[in-house]
Amino acid sequence: MSEPDIARLSGVTHRYGSVVALEEVDLEVRRGEVLAVLGPNGAGKTTAIHLLLGSLPVQIGRATVFGQRPDAPGVRARRGAMLQISGVPDTLTVGEHIDLFRAYYPAPVPASDLLAMAGIEGLEGRRFGKLSGGQKQRVMFALALCGDPQLVFLDEPTAGLDVEVRRGLWEEIRRHRDSGRTTVLTTHYLEEADALADRIVVLHRGRVIAEGAPSTIKSRTAARRVRCVTRVTVDAVASVPGVVRSETRGQHLEVLTSRPEALIRDLFDRDPDLHDLTVVGAGLEEAFLALTRESDEPEPVA
Amino acid sequence: MTAARRAHRARIYALEAWYQFLMVLREPAFAIPTLLFPLIFYLFFGVVLGAGSFSVAAPTYMLATYSVFGVMGPSLFGFGAGLAMERDSGVLLLKRTTPMPAAAYLLAKVAMAIAFGAAVVLGIFLLGAHGAGVVLYRWQWFALAGVVLAGVIPFCALGLAVGAWSRGRAAVAITNLVFLPMAMLSGLWIPITIFPAALQDVANALPAYHQAQLALKIIDMDGGQTTLLHISVLGVQSLALLAVAAFGFRRAGTGAVSIRPGGTS
Fold this sequence. Notes:
A: alpha/beta; Rossmann fold; Alpha-Beta Plaits; 2 domains; six-stranded mixed sheet; four-stranded antiparallel sheet; 13 strands; 34% helix; B: 265 residues; 11 helices; 78% helix
């Protein structure tokens, strides 16, 4: 029996009261890949994960995992999850939590392997409440892997961790990826999606606005903010290829663009006296804005 | 195959119960009030004050009612406060994504309540027999223990209803607001016969009152209502509370609330 895709959302719309969390989302998880669902807070990433976990009921559309309903008993045994939760009870030790979660699955991974996979050897006797934030996340990662799952959901696995701890956890996730399993990861760090994923789906305000290999997404989100004092007007630069947004701020012209080189060449052509020029990388929010703009006015992008 | 699967399921139930027990045993905020309070109260009111009185009637009466009190604590707190906090922390949500049967989680809490309740009852019996000179027939000791421990059914149902409708820290406060006044108004600390008539009427509406009356029947110290009445009231109340709990869970889910708007997404 072949499964073309391991998990899928088809035409899914989800509302919390009057707030739309997901709107006509199609999401496909392919066998063996690491899929990153990237988006700012409130984009609908966690809602998508919980629909695939069966912990939220599907309102409109369809969710399937291994070709079945997401909450089917057979699905639960082949899937693992690391959720955005404050953790497991403080008073039990790491080893005890692992022992309990292993018992839920028919063919669990040996405890010693789990400790090694999550990089928490030597902590099995420590109570969960006594661990650092990074160690806790590693334990939650180990719990997600207890059942030797074919499909793993990691919902913002490194949220709230400092950079060094985050990179440490990436190592564990990367090693897990190399074992050939399928992983779905949500994150609002482009860097994290780039470091770990084979494919990225960008979610913004409940819609899929881009999808592709990390290099593609990176080039499309690589917006720069160009700032200078010039005679050239806002309207004149608006038609330059790659420009997402242009405005005047005081004496300065400020332009958000995905192709800064083309813009600057154009600016110097029109105004050789241009001065006070700066080019800075735009934040992720602006990068998303660039993508949203593209998704509103489709144009071919390399 | 089915035998292996049954063994696998049995192991989940056993481990879930064992770790539930360990977890609360290591939680002083739970273990101290539920284990020590009934024992200390009985030691003070039943043994120390009771032994100075002219008869052993008071220590004998309190032996039954403090045992009911002792079973009520772990049942109410395990479900009321424990469940609400596990739902808030998200661990319940995480467990529901695993193949763990929901019944294993609920029965683990019932088993924990029985284990803690039995420990308290044993302690009170030892204090009563050796400290206060309470004398009962052997069958009465066993019957009393059995009746008192059966109280986990209505009390766990009550705790489940509280846990289903309240959140986190508030659940601890609400559980205490149910626990202590109900204990007093049901005559678990002092006989309700000394209460004004209006308060005695209130007692008739409380599961702890009927549970205590069943226990007192064993030692011929009950108020004279029929066993059938007490059992019927407890049965109906337990079912009603379970329905209230089920409705609460349907409304609030098992912890997906954190992804509502305003939370992280």
